[in-house]
Amino acid sequence: MSQTAEAATPAGAATPPVRRRSPVAVAMAAASVALVIVGFAASVGAFPESWNLGLADPIDRTRRWLINNQTSHWLYSVLLNPVTDLADAGIRRLEAILRWFPWYVYPVFCGLGLWRVRGRVAGALGFCGVVLIGMTELWQQGFATLALMGVAVFLSLLAGIPLGIAAWRNDRFASVLRPTLDAMQTMPGFVYLIPFVLLFGIGRVPALVATVIFALPPVVRLTDVGLRNVPHPMVEASEVFGATERQTLRLVQIPAARPAILAGVNQTTMLAMSMVVIAAFIGSGGLGQDVLRAMRDIDVGEASEAGIAIVIMAIILDRFSRGVATLGERGRGHGTIAVRAADLQAIRWLAVAAALVAVVGGLVGHNKFPEWLHWHFSPYVNDITAWARDNLYDIGSSGIGTGPLSDFITLYMVTPLRELLSSQIPWPAMIGLGVLAGLMARGVTLGLGIGIALLGIGWLGMWELSMDTLAQTVVAVAATLAIGIPLGIWASHSDRFQKLADPVLDFLQTIPSFVLLVPVITLFHVGRIPGIIASVVYALPSAVHYTDLGLRRVPAEVHEAATSFGATRGQRLRRVELPLAAPELMVAVNQVIMLVLAMVVIAGLVGGGGLGLETVNALRRSDAVGRGFEAGIAIVLLAGILDRLTRGVADRLRPPAAT
To answer: Exposure winner among 82, 181, 410, 536, fewest CB in 10 A?
Structure first.
């Protein structure tokens, strides 16, 4: 070590190790550079068609075999048909029970329950929200949706909590389960539907199974995390008093992990609700069916009514589950246990009172929402939409409006980027660049994984469509970050703006993504741009929230030190706050990418093209199931590449102690 380096190292401090590249990493980097050079020098064309694995044909043959043997094969008579009948009977039974109760039990129960766990304002809004669902004549559809989601959440918890406990007990099982959960979370909801439609046909059961799998990961992860974070002294104290391992788990560890487990219940419920409209594609019915029908008719008003009904249900379930999860945490010190006991006692009395009122009302027969309370706001929404369509698409000869904006984004952003990725960058060079990015982000494993995933996309025959989808994703992510990061910075510096923005962002997060498409189609017509704009709106809340969170976590001492050295507000933001918040900003990028990719299939419904259109065709046409399945796998591979890259960059930006 040189004298300069020795002088720079404090006495007694450990010398930081010199980081050296492994020979494997050096060889992979050299091979990747060679791929890039050869790809451009040789002017390689499209990905070779002869390398296509041809998965579509065997999948289509399997579909035809399943259809021809649904009534005779033991797979159906012994296993699938009984499961289908049992699941369908459970959904119908729960829906019948929900419809038996008198209509006024629901607004009163939601209002009083939210008042108790979240406050008076939440209680009043919950009461009004439930009444609004009835006023728009969506009462029966709401029960159908609630029954399907209720059974899905119950089955998710029934499987998820034991899986979380098993992952907590066994690190090897957790290491196997973790990538499986990652794949389940990155796969768009539409892709889940294809294999279950093959097995179960059209109806509620495939929608139920797809919803369970889509909503399962959060409760598994948070059960595992909650149990791992239980303080060790609590476990030791239980063992000292003679409790067995099972008693310690049941009486100490699970109660201590209750907030994390209930947070998982909350997230699972929200993911299940997000599948409402997607599940309607295969006959789940309910509110999702109304949204889907309105979207096909381009009826913004009707879609808004059904969409807002879904939002109201999601927000009520979200606030109620969050309130239950934080019971007893509002107190401090010696008052915590007393507050928890008072809350639980109040909930018990509320449940008893609601049950008595429900039984009496059910016997009397007040289970239909009164017709004299019916009211629709859809005509007003349609009038506003018609005015916007007629006046905003092209404003005179000024060259501004939604039409010119759509043309500008298409001609100068989406089309050039799509041509660059699909034809101007040769496929070997794209693979080489992907491997290099993986090496720099996390190392050999990620670089090799990205190379294999990109080859897999080519082997599926989805290279050009994947590059089309990647171009749309890049444009949507860039636009989302360009809007979301400044708004997040503003929210982090202004509590007033944050309070004003939170309800809007919550609304955008809970409203079904399909509903976002309807007004966008009206203003921008069918094409790639409506899908991109809807993706931006859908992903915007995550960009704002994570930017706000990252900047608020910067220690106050750092702000004071920067100010004492004479830094202006802008200098402090650029040179201190944003660099320290870089890991959270990369998490924001990661979440935005995942949400935009989740909209890929939905954008395919309105002319977005790419992989999304192929997946949608698999649900529309029986002869396109195999190709749609290939497109779904390509979406998963593309999502995995982008997810791991952004996570790797976030880990590198994170301080060593935090990592």
So the answer is: 82
Q: One-letter amino acid identity for 308?
A: I
Task: Give me 560's structure tokens.
Answer: 């004071």
DSSP letter string over 477-524?
Answer: HHHHHHHHHHHHHHHHH-HHHHHHHHHHHHHHHHS-HHHHHHHHHHHH
CB 426 within 8 A of CB 44: yes
What are residue 395's phi and psi, to 5 degrees? -85, 95
Q: Could you give the C-alpha distances from 589 to 89, 486, 586, 652, in angstroms and in order?
A: 43, 14, 5, 14
- Residue 571 binned pLDDT confidence (cut-offs 50, 70, 90): confident
Q: Is 463 exposed, middle or buried (0-12, 13-18, 19+ CB in 10 A)?
A: buried
What lies within 8 Å, CB to CB, of 51 at 6+ separation is 458, 459
**Strand, coil or helix: 475:** helix
Token pair 């990252």 in the structure block, residue: 550
Mean pLDDT (whole number) for 603-615: 76
In 3-state terms the chain splits into helix, strand, coil percentages (rounded to 5) of 80, 0, 20
- One-letter-per-residue 3-state SS of 399-411: CECHHHHHHHHHH
Cβ atoms of 639 and 600 closer than 8 Å = no
pLDDT band at 286 (very low <50, low <70, confident <90, very high): confident
Q: Taking residues 372-400, what's their average pLDDT?
A: 77
Contacts of 169 (CB under 8 A, 6+ apart): none
Q: Does pLDDT of 321 surpass 90? A: no
Residues 573, 574, 580, CA angle at the centre, nearest 5°? 75
Distance, in Å, from the CA atom of 325 to the CA atom of 265, rounded to the nearest integer, reads 9
Round the CA-based radius of gyration of the chain to a whole number and report it: 27
What average pLDDT does the chain have? 80
Measure the CA–CA gap between 119 and 126, rounded to whole angstroms: 11
Residue 133 CB neighbours (<10 A): 24
Q: Does residue 328 surpass a pLDDT of 70? A: no
Q: Read off the pLDDT of each residue in 618-642 and give the average, rounded to a whole number.
A: 81
pLDDT band at 215 (very low <50, low <70, confident <90, very high): confident
DSSP assigned state of 401: S
Contact between 501 and 487 under an 8 Å Cβ cutoff? The reply is: yes
pLDDT tens string 512-567: 677 777 777 777 777 778 888 888 888 888 889 888 888 888 887 887 787 787 77
Exposure string of 621-655, with b = 16+ CB inside 10 Å and e = fewer, is eeebbbbbbbbbbbbbbbbbbbbbbbbbbbeebee
pTM of the model: 0.76
Segment (H or E) for 267: helix 258-274
- Let me know the angle formed at the C-alpha of 301 by 299 and 307, rounded to the nearest 5 degrees: 100
Residue pair 543/481 in contact (Cβ under 8 Å)? The answer is yes
In this structure, the dihedral spanned by the alpha carbons of residues 436, 441, 443 and 447, taken in order and rounded to 10 degrees, is -40
pLDDT, tens digit, 9 for 90 and up, residues 139-154: 888 898 889 888 999 9
- CA–CA gap between residue 115 and residue 125 (Å, rounded): 9
- Please tell me whether residue 656 adopts helix, strand or coil conformation: coil
Q: Please give the structure tokens belonging to residue 47.
A: 């990905």
d(CA 482, CA 480): 5
CA distance 245 to 178: 25
Q: Are 315 and 123 in contact (CB under 8 A)?
A: no
